[in-house]
Amino acid sequence: MVKVQLWGSLRQAADGQAEVEVEAATFKDLLDRLVDAHPGLEPQIRRGVSLSLDGVIYREAWFTEIPPEAEVVLLPYMTGG
Amino acid sequence: MSLDEYSRREFKQVGTRVRRPDGVDKVTGRALYGADVTAPGMLIGRILRSPHAHAKIKSIDTTAAEALKGVRAVVTSADFGVPDDDFTRDVQDNCMARGKALYDGHAVAAVAATDSATAKAALKLIKVDYEILPHVTDVDEAMKPDAPVVQKGRVQENVPSGYSENVTAHFEFGHGDIEAGFAKADKIVERSFKTAATHQGYIEPHACLAAVTSDGKADLWCCTQGQFFVRTLCADIIGMEASQLRVTASEIGGGFGGKTTVFIEPVALALSKKSGRPVKIVMTRDEVFRATGPTVSSSSDVKIGMTKDGRITAGLATLRYQGGAFPCGTTEFGCSAAFAAYDLDAVKTLGWSVLTNRPKEAAYRAPGAPMAVYAVESVVDELCRHFDLDPLEVRLKNAARKGTKSSYGPTFSDIGLVATLEAAQKHPHYAAPLGPNQGRGLSCGFWFNFGGNTCVSLNVNTDGTVGITEGNPDIGGSRASISLMAAEELGIPYEKIRTVVVDTNSLGYNDVTDGSRVTFAVGLATIKAARDAIKKMCGRAAKMWGIDPEAVEWKDGAAVPAGPNAGKFPPMTLAEIAAVSAKTGGPIAGHHEVNADGAGVSFGVHLVDVEVDKETGATKVLRYTIFQDAGKAVHPDYVEGQMQGGAVQGIGWALNEEYIYGKDGKLQNPGFLDYRVPVASDLPNIETVILEIPNPGHPYGVRGVGETPIVPPLAAISNAVSHATGVRMTELPMSPPRVLKAITDGA
After folding, report:
1. Tens digits of residue pLDDT in B448-461
2. Which residues contact B583 (CB under 8 A, 6 or more apart)?
3. Alpha helices in B144-198 (DSSP H)
4. Which side of chain B, N or C, has fewer Cβ within a 10 Å radius?
């Protein structure tokens, strides 16, 4: 199981939980399972999210493998100027 | 987990200050910018803009304009479809109003004519029947339940009920028990702040030339930060296949995030399609101010608790950003960046995105971060003053470092904040004496950085030179940096390499030049493309020597046997291998395609001295020093230029730059006479100190440097002015009238 930290305003879509657990081996799995388990997250995931894996931020990397015990944090989709 | 790309090495060329490849063209006027491109039979396009801040478009009559001699096409929103997705629809609706004019300067129609005067005359013949609607341009006013609604139906699911429909999104970040944190504080300071919208202020106005042929192909030349993204947007809006639209980026006279989208390009394409002739549009400066993206304006509340020995016990920030007439896209980054420099047990940021009758926000270096960090760093400074603590010591005591759980969630790995703070502490600037009416301020700054989609080709020419094609417009010296990294990897002189930025048919998709990504991501792809070419060259040498390819390695620009068992052969240089390439298997080229991650976050510290004239309220910047972690400075001149440029733009933002709206909702100062950017005589020499804490996600340790430097200046200067005047400043810009009023009110 992967523990995923949610930012504050997403928590209402996950019964107020700051951290949720899903069974996932890759980021693609993780996003799919998050939507399955917490449909309220779908609008934000559809708009775009980044994922931080042990402090490294990934914008779009479906097949990045998630090691056991990794710190996974959902973040807004990064843009810049 | 880290992206383990970095390996320590002694650089021979990276880190040197080689001659920039675009210098001669730019100083001799030979460089081709957006407005320099022409085509046979070209028409001139001009755009009619709303004089109202908010108005329903009841009808548009173009009959008289179309009948004018020399006019070849007129377009309105009726000539465009309606994209399915919100993002593209917003971009299109910003280029051409559909149903409502949402701000002063919003495009409502466009004309293509044989010359500019005819096009201008035709605009006057277009009759638009407006129904003027109530408007709102202030973020706090727009949030009130009875405020005029700018757009209906744009509220995200995360906004609680009870707010105006202008409030489109809500964000919350943080961790820990905020109230418990405040209970531990010896002092709590709570302040409210406002910042004005500012423009990116690039010298070159938006310009493009579109040529659509009768068989459905099109070419578009434009000044942009990302020709591939322009292609995506324009193909969607015009209804073309990407393969049929070739976009070529011109040289660019500044972008800073403001050229990461389109404003005139779809209009030029529509006019060209309708007229059957090439159409050129060049914005006036007035149009640039009224209708292209400024940054957001903000209103914020910050509350921070501190113990008397300088430990921050809790931080709370509420940020309200207006991003114009379309949903704001930067509030979340302000929330994430606000407290990023601190290691806090209890922190929370709340953000609200708000619609107003202003032009659509466009990115501006580290979008969303400067105004959030301004508010936080101002309150930290006030607490330091209250306890008479050294502001650098306090920041060091609370600094985020490896292992810190950041205020926006992830745990930091290798970061350079402590190193930059220590460098500032040791610098002579920090101990220099101040005179009367002078003040010193400092601030930390932070930006995320990212990598993104990147595609590079490296071609080995038969004369031993190398050509590199990449797909990102060079807005900060990337061609020099890319050539340097290729030279380092290949082991040939920098002068033997030419890097060019190519059109959308010449490479795979490249993301926009933004996010401080190019030296990181394109550099990474270039290094790997060079390694690909090296592998092929080693293979050719192996064939000629009759040995196994694995028995050949690359050293100092030549293939050599990997060890004594591989045989005894003299080094075969790149030039020698290239010269016979036709006989050994054909052309040699290296390629790399990647969606790069692992960009590594960036921190900086700015230190500034100012003097305030208490008779006039005018502020003079006396001394300015920047400390920033660059990972590895590939071309130090450009790194310093990025740092200095960010500081200068921040000085303008802090002291003078401001979108001023009248009660009628019209922009009062759409020109550089009334919108005052800093000029050379306003500025001291800006000293830079580059630190190099390698980024593990890049082969050479590179971090992006372009955005972080605009984050600290707002707070650093505000803190300096507050100390010089003895009055805490809470609103930007600190223009002379505002400073004078603060001094008078404070007295």
Report:
1. 999 999 999 999 99
2. none
3. 178-183
4. C
Q: pLDDT band at B3, cuts 50/70/90?
A: low
Flag if A9 and B257 touch (Cβ within 8 Å): no
> Which structure tokens are listed for B24?
């001669």
**Each residue of B350-386: pLDDT tens digit?**
999 999 999 999 999 999 999 999 999 999 999 999 9
Closest in A5, A44, A80 to B367, CB measured: A80
Q: What is the side-by-side strand order in the sheet with B558-561? A: B552-555, B558-561, B572-573
Instruction: Tell me the C-alpha distance between B580 and B136, whole Å.
Output: 70
Residue-averaged pLDDT of chain B: 97
Rounded to the nearest angstrom, the gap between the alpha carbon of residue B610 and the centroid of all alpha carbons in its chain is 27
For residue range B669-695, list pLDDT tens digits in order: 999 999 999 999 999 999 999 999 999
Torsion sign over Cα B284, B285, B291, B295? positive
Residues of A in contact with B257 (CB under 8 A): 80-81
Beta carbons within 10 angstroms of residue B727's beta carbon: 18
- What's the DSSP call for residue B327? -
Over residues B265-269, the mean pLDDT reads 98
CB distance A56–B408 less than 8 Å? no
DSSP type of residue A9: G
The pLDDT score that the predictor gives to residue B41 is: 97
Asked whether the beta carbons of residue A56 and residue B598 sit closer than 8 angstroms, the reply is yes
Please give the structure tokens belonging to residue B284.
């006036």
B409 and A58 within 8 Å at the Cβ level: the answer is no
Q: Quick check: A8 and B171 CB within 8 A?
A: yes
Compute φ and ψ for B588, nearest 5 degrees. Answer: -115, 125
CA distance A50 to chain B (A): 10
**How close B632 comes to chain A (CA, Å)?**
18
**Among B565, B578, B482, residue whose Cα is nearest residue B523:** B482
pLDDT for position A79: 85
Q: Positive or negative, the Cα torsion across B506, B508, B512, B518?
A: negative
DSSP B545-573: HTS-GGGEEEETTEEEESSGGG-----EE
Q: In what order do the strands lie in the sheet with B207-212?
A: B71-75, B107-113, B43-49, B279-282, B207-212, B218-222, B245-249
CB distance from B603 to chain A under 8 Å?
no
pTM value surpassing 0.90: yes
Residues B325-334 pLDDT 10s:
999 999 999 9
CA distance linking residue B549 with residue B570, whole number of Å:
16
CB B436 within 8 A of CB B640: no
Using CB atoms within 10 Å of the CB of residue A64, give its burial: 0 to 12 exposed, 13 to 18 middle, 19+ buried. middle
Residues in chain B: 747
Distance CA B52, CA B228 (A): 34
With vertex at residue B534, the alpha carbon angle to CA B532 and CA B539, rounded to the nearest 5 degrees, is 100
ipTM (interface pTM): 0.96
Q: Does B452 touch chain A (CB under 8 A)?
A: yes
The minimum CA-CA distance between B425 and chain A, rounded to whole Å, is 28
pLDDT of residue B188: 98
Does the beta-carbon distance from B597 to A58 stay under 8 Å? yes
Inter-chain contact B595–A61, Cβ cutoff 8 Å?
yes
Q: How many CB pairs under 8 A join A and B?
A: 112
Q: Are strands B347-354 and B167-175 parallel, antiparallel or unpaired?
A: antiparallel
